[in-house]
Amino acid sequence: MNQVITHPPGSLELISGDFRGKDILSLDQFSAADLYRVFALAREMKELVLAGEPSQLLAGQLVALLFYEPSSRTFGSFAAAVKRLGGQTLDIQNPEVVSSVRKGESFEDTISVFEAYTQAIVLRHPVPGAARRAAEVASVPVINAGDGNNEHPTQTLLDLFTIYEHFGRLDHLKGLLAGDPLNSRTLHSLIRGLALFEGNTVYLLSPEELRLSRDDFVALSARGIQIIEIHSEREIPTDCHFWYWTRIQKERFSSLEEYQKVAAASFQVTPALLAERANREMILMDPLPRVGTIDPAVDGDERAVYLRSQIRNGLYTRMALLALVLGKA
Questions:
Q1: What pLDDT is attached to residue 247?
Q2: Among 206, 218, 157, CA closest to 182
Q3: What torsion, rounded to 10 degrees, do the Cα atoms 117, 122, 126, 131 define?
Q4: Most CB atoms within 10 A, among 76, 219, 220, 237?
């Protein structure tokens, strides 16, 4: 059974070099050239932020941040991205409590309400495919900020940018993806993104219960990326360019007991594991939040980028994406 939504050819509007007014729902919309365009602009946004320069690029633009699930980095970086560029945000967190959703308003009606007030909607939702449903209703661009265990395309933009900034390329890389391949939307999107470039190999390390579904393994492998499942830390190749560690998705389990049982069998990055299996040139990434993934004793290691460049790149890439989608770059 597929956890990841497969998009038939022609079912998504491709970027094809033109971001203006388009929904951002899946990595399947992007080509390698589209990614490089985002990265080039993200570098400009980084320079702007580091120089402390004010910008009015999005002056007069109002962006709705409609988040049905909790978020720190995605919500915060989108809000900061809009405001850094002179725009404003309409912040709706937990709409089941603070909006008319609590009174029984339908999802489609909620989207119609907020598109009437704004130039774009950034949506996080627990149900796979919700961003696409929203895009079918809205006349303004919808940006998928994570839909259930399906995809998280803007997280992958910042992750690929982080790798690209460090290694200067996105092809012929070897990566370790650990944690929860079954449910992690960040892993699903990252594999899609890496598959756009030649010669990439990823090793998936997880408890047995959290392996990719067989359907997803076959479908993602068919994109040209080599996917190898491993079962213990001893199998981690010592020549990986990056490690990408994700938490066990507690919210995807039907009971706390089931979650605790699986989490007890999960893997954690420790100074000892880095010393044994990592090389000096690799980088260690985590989309966060950090829940049983990386020992805080690792934070001081220069290879640990999750609290340094990785989270900052979320701001720069989202600034770039918003400017492109809103036709200001």
A1: 85
A2: 206
A3: 90
A4: 220
Q: How far is CA 77 from CA 45, 65, 173, 175, in A?
A: 13, 11, 28, 26
Does residue 299 lie in a domain region? yes
Angstrom distances, CA of residue 206 to CA of 8, 153, 177, 179, 264: 29, 22, 9, 5, 12
- Residues with pLDDT less than 70, the chain: 1-10
Q: Does residue 158 sit in the same domain as residue 306?
A: yes
- List residues bridging with 203 in a β-sheet: 176, 228
Please tell me the distance from the alpha carbon of residue 170 to that of residue 154, in angstroms, as a whole number.
17
> What pLDDT is attached to residue 79?
98
Before 289, cis peptide (omega within 30)? Answer: yes
DSSP string, 52-118: T----TTTT-EEEEEESS--SHHHHHHHHHHHHTT-EEEEEESHHHHSGGGGT--HHHHHHHHHTT-
CA dist., res. 72 & res. 155, Å (int): 13
Do residues 53 and 181 share a domain? no
For residue 241, tell me if it sits in a domain. yes
User: To the nearest whole number, what is the mean pLDDT of the chain?
Assistant: 93
Q: Which pLDDT does position 100 carry in this prediction?
A: 80
Number of structural domains (the chain) is: 2
Residues 278-313 pLDDT 10s: 999 999 999 999 988 999 999 999 999 999 999 999
Q: What is the pLDDT of residues 7-62, one digit of tens each?
A: 555 579 999 999 999 999 999 999 999 999 999 999 999 999 999 999 999 999 99
Do 174 and 280 belong to one domain? yes
pTM, two decimals, is: 0.93
Q: What is the pLDDT of residue 8?
A: 56
Looking at the fold, whether 139 and 197 belong to one and the same domain comes out as: no
Q: Is residue 205 part of a domain?
A: yes
- The residues annotated as belonging to the active site are 73-74, 103, 124, 152
22 part of a folded domain:
no
CA distances from 123 to 49, 92, 168, 277, 314 (A): 25, 10, 31, 38, 16
